[in-house]
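Why Cadherin-13? Reviewers of the renewal asked for a concrete example.
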Amino acid sequence: MQPRTPLLVCVLLSQVLLLTSAEDLNCTPGFQQKVFHISQPAEFIEDQSILNLTFSDCKGNNKLRYEVSNPYFKVNSDGGLVALRNITAVGRTLFIHARTPHAEDMAELVIVGGKDIQGSLQDIFKFARTSPVPRQKRSIVVSPILIPENQRQPFPRDVGKVVDSDRPEGSKFRLTGKGVDQEPKGIFRINENTGSVSVTRSLDREMIATYQLFVETTDVNGKTLEGPVPLEVIVIDQNDNRPIFREGPYVGHVMEGSPTGTTVMRMTAIDADDPATDNALLRYNIRQQTPDKPSPNMFYIDPEKGDIVTVVSPALLDRETLENPKYELIIEAQDMAGLDVGLTGTATATIMIDDKNDHSPKFTKKEFQATVEEGAVGVIVNLTVEDKDDPTTGAWRAAYTIINGNPGQSFEIHTNPQTNEGMLSVVKPLDYEISAFHTLLIKVENEDPLVPDVSYGPSSTATVHITVLDVNEGPVFYPDPMMVTRRENISVGSVLLTVNATDPDSLQHQTIRYSVYKDPAGWLNINPINGTVDTTAMLDRESPFVHNSVYTALFLAIDSGDPPATGTGTLLITLEDVNDNAPSIYPTVAEVCDDAKNLSVVILGASDKDLHPNTDPFKFEIHKQTVPDKVWKISKINNTHALVSLLQNLNKANYNLPIMVTDSGKPPMTNITDLRVQVCSCKNSKVDCNAAGALRAGVPALLLLCLFSLACL
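Here is what the prediction returned.
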């Protein structure tokens, strides 16, 4: 058995149904002429014949149907192409699709002088302007199948046919591929006996634009005889998707006074239809502008690019004269190159007219008045300005400067961020007696610089006249504080000083009276007329009212104004020490064991309220010892401490030992204090003093600890 002829795939300008008989091969299905050229007329007239088409399916043209790529044209049953209405621009190319149950083909009408469009159906359908490839017998012959998307019932419907001119008897056709036995399954099927290919449901080109199927013939056992041969199914696009604006919100900004033709922003829509057809060829236009003042056509949109530009003069694009600096444009995108049959989608474009600093701030008046009491601080006047620029920008916000009349830096001016007013303040108290009037020159500018053709004028400066009001000020002590030094214990009635207070209101000629305000110890008196301060009691440096040898008192000076004003003065008295305090000893009670081997009794310390040199070194002595001599002994340890000890053991009893301590003052002061010594019974680490039975630490051990501590001083 000889091998079978190789498979031949014929890609034609249209799907051609091949005949299986030798006689039919003499007839070529399709258009007799496939390309036509005409010149672009001024207008296509309704029902006027444009050209005649001749199509044959070699089977009598039963159920012949024509489809034209532009919906404003049709083909009559006699093959005449006519317009359905008067129309001018239709593009550069029209495609005519003819179809019968046995064959279909595509013809192209080229309009010379027509406007270019994106691509052509010839590119989409991948047809070539060549004659069909000659068929060969004894082969499976297939051609691409073209199916419009969105077809309606009934289904299934035949869409093409596969022919094998030398198919063995009993063999069958088999169809495979995506859309048949691969997902999405069941869309296409083939009549295994006749080779007719049918579609079972409506197609969506935006989901799948082409299907790559394979055809083969098999024997009764399913064994492949020929093939597989590729069969391409092309879904013809229909205009079933509206343009969509996906990138919103769309907000653009343009500076006021911009030149005509300034680009503001770009609007771009997308269309899911085939970009190689007019179905996705978009054109843009402005449907509505709000507000419509000062011109209903403030902006223009490039119909092809979507660029929005200004079309009014710079003078009309003045933010300060516009009713509203915000414009809203309803932008429409329409497919089919903007023809009336095209689908549309809309979006809103918001355009803000941005401010520039083309208006300088101006004071509402040339002169401002202010009054302030002497001695007061704070805001005294608000300076008001006008500025036509945008209040949210630095072109409106004001900055104030005092350019004259403030040599002492007594005034400052700041901007109120809410009102833009200049808040003029006194920061250093003013004195009426020095100057009752002040005149300031104030300048106002913007935070942002002015545009080159605008400058600050005379209205950007103002004068402020300030009147200082006289206030009855309290007298002032000089110096303050007042300081004197005196020895403590001076005699009562001693004069300490004469205070001096003056009245700042020199023009009022007022009198001043004095009084004591605070005298914690009650030691002082002041003459209300002349201010002489003397003592009413002894001054004591050791008083609790004295701190670090300084006593503090306060005095008042009251003028004769109505109402009277008061001033306060401070007197600091430094008290010099006098040796008026005798020293004292500690402790005053001690214990010792009756059988102690260490006869040390206690370590005594001394203290003195006075200051050096009226304190240590202290002299310790036993005064008038009433017990037999050579029983007690006192020894100096250092300037402030001494050791009391026994010369022999004593019986259990209580003893009073008078201790005399003398300071180093001139003259010195002496104090005699009884030291009570308890001689206790100490057995088995227990101390019994007068049968008290208290458990105490051993006296010798305590004495040794104290001696060690003193040695470290």
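The radius of gyration is 61 Å. This is the kind of structural detail the renewal will allow us to pursue systematically.
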